[in-house]
Amino acid sequence: MPMAIKKLLEHNAFYIAIFLTLLIAFLSLISLRGIHVINVRNSDKFGHFFAYLCLTLSWLYASKAPPLKKVKKHIIILLIISYGIIIELLQGAITTSRQADFYDFIANTAGVLLATVIFKKINRMFLEK
């Protein structure tokens, strides 16, 4: 990985992770009434998967920077999975146009797990040389 990209990630990963965390909460809890949504069965599962994959990668990269350097990777992973559970429960509890969905949780968790594998592979290939 070129040094410029590595530096960019190291310096901005924490802010990107915070932004993605807030964006996912916002998009998960806003009302969809009046918004045209493509209604293909389970199409939102890919969105959940991709969102949590990106969220996890951003937090794992953020954990390499000074504010989070001492936080263990497995703690970050457990916190992101817990965040997904909390968001799903909030959808069922505080929104009228959304509902908690177990399959969304599965998609979220699958995204987290794949991101963990990708992160480990990228670190082995590029960053630890």
Can you offer a commentary on this structure?
By secondary structure, the chain is mainly alpha-helical. The protein has one domain. It has four helices and no strands. The chain has helices at residues 3-29, 43-62, 73-94, 102-127. Helix 1 (3-29) crosses helix 2 (43-62) and helix 3 packs antiparallel against helix 4. It is elongated and about 45 Å long. The N and C termini lie close together (10 Å). The relative contact order is 0.17. The model has no long low-confidence stretch (mean pLDDT 86).
Counting structural domains, the number is 1
Strand residue content: under 5%
What is the average of the pLDDT values? Answer: 86
Distance between the termini: 10 Å
Q: How large, in whole angstroms, is the Cα Rg? A: 16 Å
Please give the number of β-strands: 0
How would you describe the shape?
elongated
Element string (H = helix, E = strand)? HHHH
Helix content: over 70%
Major sheet characteristics = none
Structural class: mainly alpha
Topology:
Layout: H1 3-29, H2 43-62, H3 73-94, H4 102-127
Helix pairs in contact: 1-2, 2-3, 2-4, 3-4
Quick description:
With 129 residues, this protein is mostly helical. The chain has helices at residues 3-29, 43-62, 73-94, 102-127. Helices cover 74% and strands 0% of the residues.
Structural features:
129 residues, mainly alpha, 4 helices
